[in-house]
Amino acid sequence: MNVEQHDQLYEKYCNLLSSQSGIDDQAGFSFKHYEIPGNDVITLKESSSFISEGTTGLCSWQASKALCEFVTNNLEEFRGKNILELGSGVGLTGIFMAKYCEPSMIVLSDCHNSVINTLRQNVELNFPKGTRVDTDNPLISCLIDNIDSIVAVMDLDWSYINASNLNQLIEPDILVGADIVYDHALFQPLLTAVNYIFAITNNRCKFVLSCTERNQDTLNDFLEMLVSTKYCINEETVCPSKHFQWDSSSAKIRIFSVTRDWSFQ
I want to staple 42 with a disulfide (CB 3.0 to 4.6 A). Which of 34, 53, 106, 108 is the partner? Predict the structure, then answer.
């Protein structure tokens, strides 16, 4: 029997796990290793709990792994591009794209202090030979020249993205996000961020969104918000798990490409 996991129940579950996890419990972290194409490995510091320190961003989620698999099957769409990831968490998708796609620049972003610190550590861990670049932007905690790509970690609050000076750092060709559509309270800030990014790129950006469908109504509500603000949505084929493993039986993964007509003002 399929039972939808409604927002309030999911929120209570998150709060319960958060209260049990302990705020400064570094013993709750471990290092996970992901073999990726090209005989390379990603090593990530992750929380052993789904919810830790009041956030869901300290472990890798299934939609992130599915997005990585999608990227391996659509490499040319991402190679050499400027890429911005929203809600990067511990950085699996962004670090994989930086290693595998050879983007011109990729910015991994989030806005929770513990997540940003862990994200920065993971980027530094996976690009030890990269050159640290100084920056005056207080929202940039890490900027690394990795020869083939520039990799940055940015503290990016969706609600205040207009004040972030993001356009001075990057004008994204591709915007990506994995498992960031799960709470109605985040929909308007997320839409604010998406609108801003499409505006600074004159609607030439593409948004690739990977979602775990915990509640079909919740996901549909956000998709309807996009459509109502003149975005076009194309549902992509989710690739079978080959390089990245996830439990496809527990919840459905859906991936969307979101675009907007260039002439939209």
Answer: 34
